[in-house]
Amino acid sequence: MLTKHTLFTLIYNLRPLLLYHYFDERGSSAGFFNNWISMGHSTTAPPVAKETFKKGTDLPSWHKYVILFTVSFMCLAATFSSTCLYPATPEIAAEFGTTAEHINVTNAGVLLAMGSSSLLWAPIARTLGRRTAYNAAIAVLFFCSIGTALSINMAMFTAMRILAGFQGTYNMVAGQTIIADIFDQKRRGTAVGFFMVGSVLGPAIGPLVGGIIVTFASWRSIFWVQTGMVGLGLFLSLLFVPSIAQPHQITEKPSLKLWGKSQVEMLKVFTLLIYPNVFFADLACGLLAWTQYSLLAAPRHLINPRFNLTSPLVSGLFYIAPGAGFLLGSIAGGRFSDMTMAKKIMQRGGKRVPQDRLNSGLIAFFLIIPASQLIYGWCLQYDVGGLALAIVAAFFTGAGLMAAFSSLNTYCAEAIPEQRTAVIASKYFIQYIFGASGNAAIVPLIDSIGIGLAATIGVILAISGGILVWTLAKYGGEMQTFIDGKLGHQVETDDEK
Question: Which of 65-69, 237-241, 282-286, 315-319 shows the lowest mean pLDDT across its residues?
């Protein structure tokens, strides 16, 4: 017979597997089941879990891979919301008695909210711990998804969408920081590449799933699907993602004073832009985001009338092409980034320089993205090659974008390791400002000057980003050293990672 004592003993022994314990950024430790078992029996603090990992790199490999899958899946669920309504825009506009342009502006507002989410959640993370903030952000997104599905008018729909957006990029910032904490620098690029699978597939499969759903059911079902995805992500996070001790984190107890200090600390999201290497990396990501979201926002507007298509399902299926490109580019780009870094380390006699990995993305900036975008835009402009050529061009555009993003994302986690979260947050802030601009502007721009010239503008922006990255790869170290010298800072490397 299973007694209470036997049950508690079993639970206690399963704690390392279930991972219901954590060691948070402030240095406190706790175990969920330790707390539960001791409730009502003791007023003293619960014992420290012996299985706690103070360094993320000490985690076993299987645990790292499960964490990587979890944070990547959560990014997929969060970014799914940013594009899932593209094929359903006319249907939503009709139900709420508004225009498609109004819905597109709402989508742009969601992207702006996503870019700003770290300004809200990072102080919470510094006050309550990163794990608590991460799970709370997921929980808020869960309830906002339900609220969007139950919206009764345009005001409620807009409010729920934008509130959901405010949880968006914190999942990416925290996820990318977690990966930087648990993988050493030799494998970090590959890990970030796999992490990006979630963040890049979300915007790509969102319209695909949305198109399928809106063809056969109500657009509200899109958000019930999203609710299920976010709920699963929350379950996985609670089960498998611990907090990792941070060597640069403060050790104060939660308080209003700490909350205020944390908000001031988040100004580093902007003050770090004084470093040219950080600003160049962020701006390059923003220029890529314009191309990414202008590619994703326009297909139903472009494809359906040109090829006499009437179903949102077909325009939704079109997103398989850039989605597959995103997948290939993120994985291959991350791996190529690590290979480039390893080669440069050998050439430098064992010295590791973070900006060396940026060389891996130059071919994407200067060849793959420009060529595929020009083919995509001008062939659609003059009806050359049909739908098949547009699909192929969209695939290579997506692959090039993610190959370029991979090295930049990893670099942002390595450039100033003691300010890693702030650097990554600044990247997403600028990236989503450009993404929102591309999302809102691309359809009116196409109507005004044509898809050919609109694509050419995207190419110019991508090449400009490539120039920034080339400059950063060549002179990034000198840029950072110069500013550190002016500010009287000691330059800290990430070699221990």
Answer: 315-319
For residue 77, give the nearest of 178, 226, 210 by alpha carbon. Answer: 226
Kindly compute the dihedral angle of the four CA atoms of residues 352, 355, 356, 357, in this order, to the nearest 10 degrees.
110
Class of the domain covering 58-487: mainly alpha
- In tens, the pLDDT along 272-292 reads 888 999 999 999 999 999 998
Closest-CA residue to 497 (of 177, 193, 195): 177
**Model confidence pLDDT, tens digit, residues 176-220:** 788 888 887 777 777 877 887 787 778 778 888 888 898 888 999
Instruction: Tell me how many helices (H) and strands (E) the chain has.
Output: 22, 2
The residue type found at 191 is A
CB 402 within 8 A of CB 337: no
Locate 80 and state its tokens.
């799914």
pTM above 0.70, yes or no: yes
Length of the chain: 497
pLDDT tens, position by position, 423-463: 888 888 899 899 888 888 888 899 999 999 999 999 999 99
Give the SS3 label for residue 158.
helix
Q: Which segments of 348-490 does DSSP mark as H helices, in order?
A: 362-363, 369-381, 386-414, 420-449, 451-487
Measuring CA to CA, which residue among 125, 123, 419, 426 is closest to residue 270? 426
Alpha helices for 241-307 (secondary structure H): 256-265, 268-271, 276-297, 299-306
Q: How far apart are CA 7 and CA 56, in angstroms?
A: 30
Q: H/E element holding 38? A: helix 32-38
Q: What sign has the CA pseudo-torsion 95, 98, 104, 110? A: negative
For residue 417, what are its two tokens?
């390791």
Residue type for position 390? A
DSSP state of 254: S
Where do the domains of the chain lie?
58-487
The long-range contacts involving 96-102, CB below 8 angstroms and separated by at least 24 positions, are 96/153, 96/154, 96/157, 97/154, 98/154, 101/443, 101/444, 102/154
